[in-house]
Structures are given as structure tokens and as C-alpha cells.
Amino acid sequence: MTEYRVENKQWMPPEWHVHRRCWMAWPSDDDQWPCGLERAAIAFAEITRAIARFEPVIVVVNPDQIESAKLHLGLSSRPASAVSAVDDPILYHPDRVTDLDAAPGIQLMPMALNDSWMRDIGPTFVFAGRQLAGVDWGFNGWGKFPHELDALVAKNVLAAIGIERIESPIINEGGGIHVDGQGTVLLTESVQLNPNRNPGFSKADIEAELRRQLGVQQCIWLPRGVVDDDTDGHIDELACFVAPGKILALISDDPEDANYDILQTNLDILQQAKDVNGQPFEVITIRQPPARYLDGTRLSMSYVNFYIANGGIVMPSYGEAEYDAEAKEMMQRCFPEYEIIQVNCLDIVVGGGNIHCITQQEPQTEELT
């Protein structure tokens, strides 16, 4: 354990910290998926199976989508033995949890949902001392969509697994923050300071709450995200830490692209930033693929939006051979000891997110020393 972690009673570990499991949520809202719920389910199943090669996965599923999830994942009914009930049996049914015969690491947990963005609706797992806890941020559908059921998911997940719930007074989504586990968090002004999230909260107020909940000492603010991002500019489409002192940043190589100036501004800020010890970060760049549109809206296609599993990276591809191959090669350089798996995510991005958006890591407490 580093000195930084010892000094902070509550802190969020980096995403490469060893995981106990991954949390996901199954797609259920027809209106969210313009190419159809069936295509979304197929894509989710492929990502779930890829992650399950490296670590256990629990998929939270709306009760009316249980059969769909079982069908696409090849599940058979079998009661789970290690999950506790919560107070409301309508939201959680411990007797109906199932697991996968062929891949025992996949389980279903029935729970009322609006849809499937587990990064944003699930708890942010932190260490409180040497015990695991979960931060339950306020969730208001990114300030624009009705997601009353999703606002209860973090609370219900934590109750189901018997982990302490730490309630935060601010609206925040997991896709809006990225930490290095050494005292720094990446975030965007267009999300955290948006009046549709936290009216009346200043930048200093937001920073103070993130320091309290995540154990960070400094915030690196990027101005905004890519165009046509329903989240108003989540950081997980733009940049992420890939190791202590290393940041992977999305760029455009086309000066005529609508994202070019946005991403260049972000890059300039990251290249000038320093860690909590005053050392500059090594900033590695990765090109965004050529733009694609659906009904006039640009799809948020980023290679930065990936999941770090135990010994594996599950990252998107988009049917752009040159860009996909280059991105995979760059990811292998960032994670030389990891197996890299690419999954075509076009049927995910049409819904407004990507692999990182639909996953949430739960860290392994045994890794604390």
C-alpha cells in the first residue's frame, strides 16, 4: 500500500486495482435503443462473456427481462447462495438469482431498472479504512431524462451485498470521474458544473465533496466533452488513467472534425498537468475513428471508453479496420501484460454509451496490505 493510501481513510482505488467482480445492468428500455432492444442484448451479452473470462460478473436485470438475459447468456435457473436480501422484495428477488453453467462467474440479480448504464447508476466503490464501502451519488438521469428506478440501484446493490452505503449530497455519475488512486481525479466542467446537475454548487463545493468521497487531493478539469454526448461530456469518453503517472487521451487527426478543437484543448491541459507530487503526466494519445451519424446525431465513438478487468482489457471496435487495429495496438502498449479483447460496439453507442458506461468494478479488499 502506498503512503498516499495509508494517509487517507476513504479513497477510491484505480480501475486496475484487482477486482472482486464486475457489475453490469441489462438493457430494458425500448426507447433507449433505436436499432432495437434485441441488438442491444446481443452486444451486451458479448461484452458480459468477454469480461467473465477474467473475473466474475453480476448482471442486474429488470424482472421482465430475466428471460431475455437468460436466453442471450445461456443461463439456467439455480439459486444463488451468497447474496443477501434487501427490504423491498419487489426490487430484489434473492430466490431468482441465476448463474451460468458454462461460466460460473456470471450471475443475474433481478432488480427494477429504467435501463442499463451501471457506471452511472451503480455505487462507486471506495475503501473506508480497510473496509469496502459504496458511494451513492444522487442520480437524476443526466439532468434530462426520467430515471427514478435507476436512482435506487446503488442503494439496492449495496444492501444486497451487505456493504456500507455512503450517501453523497451531489449529483454525479461514475462516467463523470476517473481517478489514479494517487490523489488525482479527472472530470469535466460541462458535467460537474452544469446547472442540470448541481445548481447552487460552486466548483469549490464539488471539489470538496470529491475530496471527501474519493480521497483525492486535486482535480484536473477539462472544459467539455465530445459533440452530441447525451451526458454533457463524460470524462470516460475523453481521457483516463492507465497507470500511475500515465493518461490515455482521445484526439482527432482531422482539423475539420467538430471534435478536433475540443480534444486539442483537453490535450493541452493534460500535457500541462502535474500529479500530486508535482511531476508531469505521460500523456498517450489515441485517435478517434471517423464520424458516424444516426438520424443526424453524431455517435460518441471513443476508444478510451473501455473496461479494465483482472488481466484483460475489453475495449470497443467500430468496423474501422485501420483505427480499430491502431487502437488495439496502443492499448497493448499501455497494458503489456493484459489480454486485449475488442468487441464491436456500434449497437451500444447508438444507445448513448459504451463499454465503460455499462460496467462498474468492485475492488478486491484482500489486495490491501
Automatic annotation (TrEMBL):
Nucleus keyword on record: no
GO biological process: putrescine biosynthetic process
GO function terms (MF aspect): agmatine deiminase activity; protein-arginine deiminase activity
Keywords, ordered alphabetically: Hydrolase
SUPFAM superfamilies the UniProt entry points to: Pentein
Entries under InterPro entries matching the protein: Peptidyl-Arg-deiminase_porph
PANTHER family: AGMATINE DEIMINASE-RELATED (PTHR31377)
Protein name (Swiss-Prot/TrEMBL): Agmatine deiminase
Record organism: Oleiphilus messinensis
